[in-house]
Amino acid sequence: MIPEPLQAVGRSAWEALPTLLAAAPITLGYALAAMLFGLPLALLVALARLSRARPLRWVSGVYVSFMRGTPLLVQIFMLYYGLPAFGISVSPLVGGVLALTLNAAAYLSETMRASILSVPRGQREAALSLGLTPRQTLRLIVLPQAARVALPSLGNTLIGLVKDTSLVSVITVVELLRSAQLVIARTFEPFGPYLAAALIYWAISSALAWVQRRLEVRLSRPG
Q1: What is the DSSP secondary structure assignment for residue 91, as one 8-state letter?
Q2: Per the structure, how many domains does the chain have?
């Protein structure tokens, strides 16, 4: 016999499930958008940190240090509530994606920098001696190998972004966590909706981890 409190939790979780499932694509969309916009920015930052130009190294280093050294929640508040003080107003959608993108790019840039450095220097020198330009060497020789090395960390970052999207609920974005809160405000039963939201986060993260493992296996095959 299932205790009555557990039955109540199960009922509230089940009743909240349709609403939460409808919000799950929004959560996934925020994570994918931050990853999509964050990767090019991260590559630029990584190249700036590897540049011989000291100002580029300094500016990119400060950016990475600041974004990694401050809470994402504070960054969201600064962009959404702070930018209007400078005459720049952003919607919750733009503010959320922008904060997630800037934060993710800082972490991704360090992954990319380490991956680029992992490519043997001799390969770059050989490519240059064969007549390739530095840009061609980077695009054709270095980045394909660096991408293979970086894949596990990139996958982990995406999974982390899925969970970090819960923070954009503070600027009224109705994603997965915010949807659970709205259900709770209506039913006054917190545990079930939060449990259902946690299970959906878990399911999305597990699916992304499975895709990541499949890609790693495919890329590890010779030829």
Answers
A1: -
A2: 1
Nearest to 38 by CA among 151, 135, 161, 142: 161
Give whole-number Cα distances, 133 to 117, 119, 127, 144, 221, in Å: 18, 17, 8, 16, 29
pTM: 0.92
Quote the CA–CA distance of 160 and 162 in Å, as a whole number. 5
The amino acid present at 134, given as its one-letter code, is P
Residue 127 confidence (pLDDT) above 90: no
Any idea what the CATH number is for the domain that residue 116 is in?
1.10.3720.10
Pairs from 74-78 (Cβ < 8 Å, separation ≥ 24) = 75/99, 75/102, 75/103, 76/167, 76/168, 76/170, 76/171, 77/170
Amino acid at the residue 184: I
Domain around 57:
4-220
